[in-house]
Amino acid sequence: TQQQLATQSQLAATSISQFSTLNQKEQQQMSHFTEIKTQIKDIEALRLACQEMGLTLLQNAEARGYYENKTQGDYVVQLKGPYDIALNKQADGTFGLTADFWNGHVEKEVGQGYGKLLQLYGVHKATIEARKKGLSVLRRQQQNGSIKLVLMGVS
User: Fold this and answer.
1) Residue 128 parent element (H or E)
2) Distance between CA 88 and CA 138 in Å, rounded?
3) Labelling 70: which of 38, 61, 139, 151 has CA 20 to 30 A away?
4) Cα dihedral angle (116, 55, 48, 90), rounded to 10 degrees?
5) How many helices (H) and strands (E) in the chain?
Protein backbone atom coordinates (compact mmCIF):
# COMPACT_ATOMS: atom_id res chain seq x y z
CA THR A 1 0.00 0.00 0.00
CA GLN A 2 1.02 3.60 -0.44
CA GLN A 3 0.44 6.18 2.24
CA GLN A 4 0.86 9.91 1.80
CA LEU A 5 1.79 12.47 4.37
CA ALA A 6 2.06 16.20 3.68
CA THR A 7 3.98 18.31 6.16
CA GLN A 8 2.98 21.99 6.23
CA SER A 9 5.08 24.86 7.53
CA GLN A 10 2.40 25.69 10.10
CA LEU A 11 2.67 23.86 13.47
CA ALA A 12 0.41 24.96 16.30
CA ALA A 13 2.01 27.16 18.87
CA THR A 14 0.06 26.55 22.04
CA SER A 15 1.22 29.41 24.18
CA ILE A 16 3.43 32.43 24.06
CA SER A 17 5.01 34.18 26.99
CA GLN A 18 7.30 37.15 26.82
CA PHE A 19 10.30 37.96 28.92
CA SER A 20 11.39 41.61 28.77
CA THR A 21 14.93 42.78 29.34
CA LEU A 22 16.11 46.35 29.05
CA ASN A 23 19.12 47.38 27.03
CA GLN A 24 21.68 48.51 29.59
CA LYS A 25 23.13 51.43 27.58
CA GLU A 26 20.07 52.75 25.78
CA GLN A 27 17.20 52.64 28.24
CA GLN A 28 14.74 53.82 25.55
CA GLN A 29 15.26 50.60 23.53
CA MET A 30 13.46 47.45 24.65
CA SER A 31 14.12 43.96 23.45
CA HIS A 32 12.69 40.70 24.72
CA PHE A 33 12.94 36.97 24.39
CA THR A 34 9.71 35.22 23.38
CA GLU A 35 9.07 31.57 24.27
CA ILE A 36 6.81 29.43 22.09
CA LYS A 37 5.74 25.93 23.14
CA THR A 38 5.90 23.46 20.26
CA GLN A 39 5.64 19.76 19.66
CA ILE A 40 9.43 19.30 19.39
CA LYS A 41 10.39 16.13 21.24
CA ASP A 42 13.01 14.48 19.02
CA ILE A 43 16.38 16.25 19.22
CA GLU A 44 17.86 14.09 16.44
CA ALA A 45 15.10 15.20 14.04
CA LEU A 46 15.79 18.80 15.07
CA ARG A 47 19.53 18.29 14.53
CA LEU A 48 18.83 17.00 11.00
CA ALA A 49 16.57 19.99 10.27
CA CYS A 50 19.27 22.38 11.48
CA GLN A 51 21.89 20.57 9.41
CA GLU A 52 19.73 20.89 6.29
CA MET A 53 19.44 24.63 6.92
CA GLY A 54 23.19 24.98 7.48
CA LEU A 55 22.74 25.69 11.20
CA THR A 56 24.44 24.18 14.25
CA LEU A 57 22.61 22.70 17.25
CA LEU A 58 24.58 23.13 20.47
CA GLN A 59 23.91 21.43 23.80
CA ASN A 60 23.80 23.38 27.10
CA ALA A 61 24.66 26.78 25.62
CA GLU A 62 23.60 30.43 25.68
CA ALA A 63 21.45 31.99 22.96
CA ARG A 64 22.29 35.52 21.85
CA GLY A 65 19.74 38.32 21.80
CA TYR A 66 19.66 42.09 21.37
CA TYR A 67 22.59 44.05 22.77
CA GLU A 68 24.44 41.22 24.49
CA ASN A 69 21.28 39.84 26.15
CA LYS A 70 21.59 36.08 26.55
CA THR A 71 19.31 33.24 27.65
CA GLN A 72 20.38 29.72 28.65
CA GLY A 73 19.16 26.72 26.68
CA ASP A 74 19.27 22.95 27.07
CA TYR A 75 19.95 23.22 23.32
CA VAL A 76 20.68 26.26 21.17
CA VAL A 77 20.18 26.62 17.43
CA GLN A 78 23.14 28.79 16.49
CA LEU A 79 22.00 31.13 13.71
CA LYS A 80 24.27 32.86 11.21
CA GLY A 81 23.03 36.32 12.22
CA PRO A 82 23.37 38.07 15.59
CA TYR A 83 20.65 36.10 17.46
CA ASP A 84 20.05 32.41 18.32
CA ILE A 85 17.19 30.14 19.40
CA ALA A 86 17.23 28.50 22.85
CA LEU A 87 15.33 25.24 23.49
CA ASN A 88 14.39 24.22 27.01
CA LYS A 89 12.60 21.05 28.03
CA GLN A 90 9.11 21.65 29.42
CA ALA A 91 7.24 19.59 32.04
CA ASP A 92 5.32 17.74 29.30
CA GLY A 93 8.54 16.55 27.64
CA THR A 94 8.38 18.95 24.68
CA PHE A 95 10.83 21.76 24.05
CA GLY A 96 9.90 25.43 24.17
CA LEU A 97 11.71 27.66 21.67
CA THR A 98 12.90 31.03 22.93
CA ALA A 99 14.37 33.78 20.77
CA ASP A 100 14.63 37.54 20.52
CA PHE A 101 12.55 38.52 17.49
CA TRP A 102 13.75 42.13 17.39
CA ASN A 103 14.35 43.49 13.88
CA GLY A 104 13.45 40.21 12.13
CA HIS A 105 16.88 38.56 12.46
CA VAL A 106 15.47 35.17 13.52
CA GLU A 107 12.61 35.21 10.99
CA LYS A 108 15.05 35.88 8.13
CA GLU A 109 16.80 32.57 8.86
CA VAL A 110 14.09 30.20 10.09
CA GLY A 111 10.85 31.76 8.86
CA GLN A 112 7.99 33.52 10.61
CA GLY A 113 7.08 31.73 13.84
CA TYR A 114 10.01 29.35 13.21
CA GLY A 115 7.99 28.07 10.21
CA LYS A 116 10.81 26.73 8.01
CA LEU A 117 12.64 25.14 10.96
CA LEU A 118 9.45 23.49 12.25
CA GLN A 119 8.52 22.32 8.75
CA LEU A 120 11.88 20.59 8.30
CA TYR A 121 11.68 19.18 11.84
CA GLY A 122 8.32 17.61 10.90
CA VAL A 123 9.76 16.20 7.68
CA HIS A 124 12.72 14.62 9.47
CA LYS A 125 10.59 13.32 12.37
CA ALA A 126 8.11 11.69 9.96
CA THR A 127 10.98 10.22 7.92
CA ILE A 128 12.63 8.74 11.03
CA GLU A 129 9.36 7.17 12.20
CA ALA A 130 8.51 5.81 8.74
CA ARG A 131 11.92 4.17 8.38
CA LYS A 132 11.54 2.57 11.83
CA LYS A 133 8.44 0.88 10.40
CA GLY A 134 10.36 -0.36 7.36
CA LEU A 135 8.86 2.16 4.93
CA SER A 136 10.80 4.01 2.28
CA VAL A 137 10.29 7.75 1.99
CA LEU A 138 10.07 9.89 -1.12
CA ARG A 139 10.22 13.64 -0.51
CA ARG A 140 8.73 16.17 -2.91
CA GLN A 141 8.94 19.95 -2.60
CA GLN A 142 5.62 21.55 -3.60
CA GLN A 143 5.28 24.87 -5.45
CA ASN A 144 3.42 26.41 -2.51
CA GLY A 145 6.40 25.73 -0.19
CA SER A 146 4.97 22.66 1.51
CA ILE A 147 6.82 19.37 1.47
CA LYS A 148 5.02 16.18 0.54
CA LEU A 149 6.29 12.87 1.85
CA VAL A 150 5.23 9.68 0.09
CA LEU A 151 5.68 6.63 2.32
CA MET A 152 5.93 3.32 0.54
CA GLY A 153 5.98 -0.18 1.90
CA VAL A 154 4.82 -3.70 1.14
CA SER A 155 1.52 -4.84 2.61
Assistant:
1) helix 115-132
2) 32
3) 38
4) -80
5) 3, 9
- In angstroms, rounded to a whole number, what is the distance separating the alpha carbons of residues 145 and 118? 13
Pairing of strands 2-7, 16-22: unpaired
Q: Model pTM?
A: 0.76
Do residues 102 and 66 lie in contact, with contact meaning Cβ atoms separated by under 8 Å? yes
Over residues 34-53, the pLDDT tens digits come to 555 567 999 999 999 999 99
| Residues comprising the chain, all counted | 155
Quick one: which of 64, 134, 61, 77 has its CA closest to 109? 77
Rounded CA separation 84/73 (Å): 10
User: Can you say whether the dihedral through the CA atoms of 48, 53, 59, 63 is positive or negative?
Assistant: negative
